[in-house]
Amino acid sequence: VINCTGYSSITLDFQxxxxxxxxxxxxxxxxxxxxxWLFLHNLNKTSGICSPLGTWSAFSINLPPSADNNPYVKxxxxxxxxxxxxxxxxxxxxxxxxxxxxxxxPVELLYFKGNQNNNQIVLNWETxxxxxxxxxxxxxxxDGSTFxxxxxxxxxxxxxxxxxxxxxxxxxxxxxxxxxxxxxxFNGTFDYSDVILIKFIFKNPDQGILIPxxxxxxxxxxxxxxxxxEHTIVLYNQLSQQLKLTSYRAYNGTNxxxxxxxxxxxxxxxxxIIRNKTSISTQKLIIY
Length: 288
Description:
Helix content is 0%, strand content 59%. It is mostly beta strands. Strands 9, 10, 11, 12, 13, 14 and 15 form a 7-stranded antiparallel beta sheet that branches. The protein has a 4-stranded antiparallel beta sheet with strand order 19-18-21-22, with no helix packed on it. The two termini are 45 Å apart.
């Protein structure tokens, strides 16, 4: 096992001899990412000019991105021989195996996660090492594709010990949020973390949530009510045109009201919850 923790842009170099029968004996190069063996390359036959052994040939290949910061890398050679006695010896030999151009990662991120705490989302992340780490930008998205920055968190610069960070997002108006980290070095280069998705459920009475959202059309409005009374649910488009009106008698506790909006075109809509002629909540609905 090759531990590539803290390294990226990994190149494999070696020298090899491959003789054997032209089309029936074959060496193939493979790579293990910690879960699966992956095919990398069919190695060509080498020259037999310097008989009887032949000529050593140099080979180089970039390992897949999954090798970056991976502690479970393995390299394998599969030799297939039809055992018919044809071809020249040595069938296959390899030497001078090297992993080169190992670039230390500026930040080794152990995790990036978030959870709801009352009516806010708490984001936490931890680094194992930092090299020239200037700062982090926390980015948020409503749809998982368009992200915008919501805060800047100063980095530790250089560290070989674990550093923990936290940010509390208090500006919450929707049911699902996507987050990612943008890590920026002192020289301006940057990298992104994986995206995390957090489902947010309002804790206050009468505040609503649409599940799922975004949706292809089928969704359920869930909201809390402390009263047994009539509620009106009104759907508007972005031009403030009323598209649907539904009356519903809410009960004390959690109320669930299913909707089928599959007839709507893709886009953004707004669902208003009205009680006693007063709008108490507006939910943005995304149809895709």
